[in-house]
């Protein structure tokens, strides 16, 4: 068989290929020849063939069939064969292949070889791809070589020990004795690898970290010698002595000094020397300064040293290299919370970075600018950030707008400035703001009572200029609907009022309804605004006409709004002024009292049913009666079937509907409570979680059927709460005898004022067909006066695609349940 071509010739041949297909053909042809040679057990050219195979592997072609040949080369006595064999093993093998375990014995023999270069090959291979099993077997040999006097082997053994510790952390203590004399070595290679080994041990074990803290003075001495030493051609890089070793020592000092006062004190002086003596004209010096800054910021350093570190980062911001500027911005962003005043000194330089052409630098500068905003510089910083918002790329607008909103909310010097700033953002980048910006701005405007006329005038002007920014249009529509009378009357004192008529305002809102730029949500805002103006303007007939037109809109949301508003005009016109009056001041933390009282589908634990309301919010009782009228009237019969799933105006009204004429005496209906936000009373069973929830008191209370109609059966079972016998715990069991599941099942209940009621979450919202399961829900009723229990229940569900809603009154509770 002719001798195979040399590696150099193969490379030259492959490079002559003009197409990918031609290259593949050459590779396949050569692989076939190499396979044939391997099959004939040709030892003469095995080394050459494996070398060519490794080159093909580097080009991305499969070379796994050469794995066993690598093992044969490792077992050879020739150094050239071993070198290619070990290189092949590092490239073609890893711990996922079982073949690598066959190398263990060869590596062990070579670690004890008489030639240091063979030992070095074995150490490199073990440190590159040794599995946890190999590391356990060979850790002893590595530890022996770590103690040898040969610096060539010691540096390789130290790096191999790092790999062993990563694979088998429990072997860390084996290398502890060998680390004692590593830092006294004069060879920089050994010093470098020793520092890497110590760093790995400190990062993985708190015990090792405490043990090696005593080495801080020695590390400081080594670093000082590197700084003060004269020119050494062997280690000099751009005029700096061994910057790689300096960086490694600084990283180790950072780990050792973190959270330790004594260690931090010992390294303060040397860090100051490094920070002041390192040349910054070359990238090498900047790398050392960057590591010095990170170390200063991580340890418990002196305040003056931290200011020095921030100033170094400030100098980095002026560097022409984009990477250095990016690193400086990222580091300042991490330190701004701890050293805010020091970073503030570089504010102008940071703001200038907003104009950089590099998008990464602009993003970091934007984030850092927001971190620097405070009450003293809010006006100047917002001016710069708004200018940046005007000119930045679309990818920045969303984050920039959110940052401006948050900063303005936190540090706004006045409400007018706050409103102007947010309106400027909506005008500039309205399409990019977050979804919650519209309700937040509406809340801000609502709570700024003295600014209502100014705000509605500014927003009206903005609408005339541009209706493409949807959030701005939505806020403007809402404000015009609320404060349109102030706009028309020209009551603005902050700026010159504009003269506008009712028809002009309605023209603008109607234009929004028909504009192609308006989103469906925006049209809903506009229609609601027009409806609100029916109580503020005199053009009621025009508004009626607009609302009636959209009763047949193809947009279901718009159609529903229009139909409901038409009903207000026709059937409930006497209620319209009360329903459309101005919104009260909104509180972010406030809960919508009545909405939480009647629990809908048990999504959260409901508070106790209570009809008390804050005395400082007066509301006419007649208005509550009107709501009661709207929701079904006072004369509720025991069982009422309603097929139209009309949505209640509010959960408060729904509560009134449920209570109806329910009273203890059976006399006339009690005056219903106004539908206003309620304070949330404590839960019935608060403070009782450490005791059993129920006891055997309710064992003798017979169950009862509360409702049985249209295939839906509701049964009540009773228990008494432990330890308070005044609390009756009722468990409802809902079953379905029909052939179709009842979905979206909701059970609601109400009791007279002398009781307190709490609904817990139901087990499901689907009642299975044919009695194949049931829905259970727990009701807690507090009856301190031991009066006869009466309850009104409301059932809502969907059956065979049709929504069903039913009311019923339950009066036949067993005496044992309330006595």
Automatic annotation (TrEMBL):
Subcellular location: Cytoplasmic vesicle membrane; Endomembrane system; Golgi apparatus
Pfam families: Adaptin_N (PF01602), Alpha_adaptinC2 (PF02883)
Alphabetical GO biological process terms: axis elongation; central nervous system development; intracellular protein transport; pectoral fin development; vasculature development; vesicle-mediated transport
GAE domain mapped to chain residues: 699-814
Keyword Endoplasmic reticulum set for record: no
Gene Ontology CC, one term: AP-1 adaptor complex
Taxonomic superkingdom: Eukaryota
Family annotation (InterPro entries): Adaptor_Complx_Large_Subunit, AP1_complex_gsu, ARM-like, ARM-type_fold, Clathrin/coatomer_adapt-like_N, Clathrin_a/b/g-adaptin_app_Ig, Clathrin_app_Ig-like_sf, GAE_dom
Stated family: Belongs to the adaptor complexes large subunit family.
Protein known as: AP-1 complex subunit gamma
Organism: Danio rerio (Zebrafish)
Gene: ap1g1
